[in-house]
Structures are given as C-alpha cells and as structure tokens.
UniProtKB/TrEMBL annotation:
Protein's recorded name: YgjP-like metallopeptidase domain-containing protein
Organism: Cohaesibacter gelatinilyticus
Coiled-coil features, chain-numbered ranges: none
Classification via InterPro entries: UTP_pyrophosphatase-like, YgjP-like_metallopeptidase
Gene3D superfamilies linked to this entry: Metalloproteases ('zincins'), catalytic domain
Record domain YgjP-like metallopeptidase: where: 39-236
Length: 247
C-alpha cells in the first residue's frame, strides 16, 4: 500500500514518542522550503523541535524521530537547566555571576551592588515584575556596551551605521542589513566583554564587506585582534546564554 503523504500545513503540531522511561513531546515545524528533516532543541526552552520538509509521510516522520530518541535524551540531559529571573537566581552579567535580590515593593528599579567579590542585582517593585525589570535593565546594559564598541570599530574603519537595534533573536547574534542597520541580541551582555567586542567588530566590518571573504576577516582582525578566541567562545558557549530568563 502506498504511504499516505501529508502536506506541511496538515501535520499535527506535536508528536509523542514513547521510550522506556516515558514520553518525549516533539514540536513539528512545517517548512515548505526545507530540504530535509532536521531535529534540534529549542535554545530557550529545550523543547525538541523537528523541521519538516514537504512530501513526507507521517509514518516516515515518526520513524525518523523514533530513531533519534537516544540522541534527544542525551542532549536533554546535557543541557543546563533554565534560569528564570526570580529572587535567588544567579545570572552572568559581562561573564560575572550576579545574584538577583528582591528588595521590597517601592518604585521599581534595578541597582547593581558590588561587595568585594560578591555581585548582586537589587530589584525593587513588586516581585512578580522582576522578570520584566531585569530584562529591561539587561537590554539597556547591552545597548550601552554595544554602542561604545560599535563606535570604536566604526571610527577605526571610517564607516557609520544608520542605526543600532537590540533584539532577542535565537538564530544569530548580530546582523547588518543592506540599509546599514546593525542588529544585535541583547543576550550578548551575558558573555565576556571580549565576545561582545568581537560581535560589534564583526557587524561593523560588514559595513565595508557584506560577505565573509578574506577581506572581511582582515577588517575584523584589524580592529579586533582577539577575534578568533571570541568567535570560538560564541560558537561553543553562545547557545547556553538563551537559558537565562527562560521559565
């Protein structure tokens, strides 16, 4: 009998795959432009997500996902737990651990406190507003640091971006559009300052070279000699930065 094919628009939103210790819930993400079936963990939530190209039977999808159970369990076990922005949580700011401390219900503010080697963020206002207040504060810190870094590298290369935008992307840390707008993920504020500096240098260099040619990398190295080390750090550690602020 010929296997029934399903269009990507008619797939169920989730598939449950049973294993000896329970069940894995896998989100199906149809993509008519996809060339092959791809399985990954969502960088923020850890949810397994399967990108589905058109023309696959549901049986083929279930078979593929069933074969990946061991890989999924291994990756799930290795993935660090999410760290929500709540009282008592510890998050990195410029790669330095900061404890989140709720300090009452007065006017909502976030204040950085450094006592010796101990770093804290003191968050006032109602406690249920902590996640938003911490996120807003981190975005401001990221914008400030990125503005300074971008200005430095832009001056060195004699270029000028049209604008800087702060976003919360998962697929890329930065981008440079054809209209010279530089966009960055605010989560880079969790990383070491040298990594943020490299990211700024990378996107500024695109204002001269909209490619990744040898000329482009020469420009990056010209203003950011440590770029290789920072580039490796972001490739290996960057995905873990999405766990901060997740529920």
């Amino acid at each position: 009998m010929r296997k029934r094919l399903m269009s990507v628009s008619k797939l169920p939103p989730m598939l449950s795959i049973s294993h000896e210790n329970g069940t894995l819930e896998i989100k199906l993400k149809p993509n008519p432009k996809a060339k092959r079936l791809i399985l990954r963990l969502d960088t923020r939530t850890g949810q397994p997500v399967a990108t589905i190209p058109p023309g696959l039977s549901l049986a083929r999808i279930e078979s593929f996902l069933g074969d990946q159970v061991d890989w999924l369990l291994s990756r799930t076990e290795q993935r660090p737990s999410a760290v929500p922005f709540v009282a008592g949580a510890e998050i990195p700011v410029r790669d330095i651990a900061h404890k989140l401390v709720h300090v009452g219900q007065s006017r909502g503010t976030v204040r950085q406190l450094i006592e010796g080697e101990s770093h804290s963020l003191l968050i006032s206002g109602e406690e249920n507003h902590m996640p938003r207040r911490v996120t807003d504060w981190l975005k401001k810190q990221a914008r400030s640091d990125l503005q300074i870094a971008v200005d430095h590298h832009a001056d060195a290369l004699s270029v000028k971006p049209a604008a800087i935008r702060i976003k919360d992307t998962t697929s890329r840390w930065g981008s440079c559009s054809s209209n010279r707008i530089l966009s960055f993920s605010w989560r880079i504020i969790f990383a070491p300052p040298s990594v943020l500096d490299y990211l700024a240098a990378h996107e500024v260099a695109h204002l001269r070279e909209m490619n990744h040619s040898s000329r482009f990398w020469a420009l990056v190295e010209e203003t950011c000699p440590h770029f290789e080390e920072a580039r490796v750090w972001l490739k290996e550690e960057g995905r873990y930065l999405h766990r901060f602020g997740s529920e």
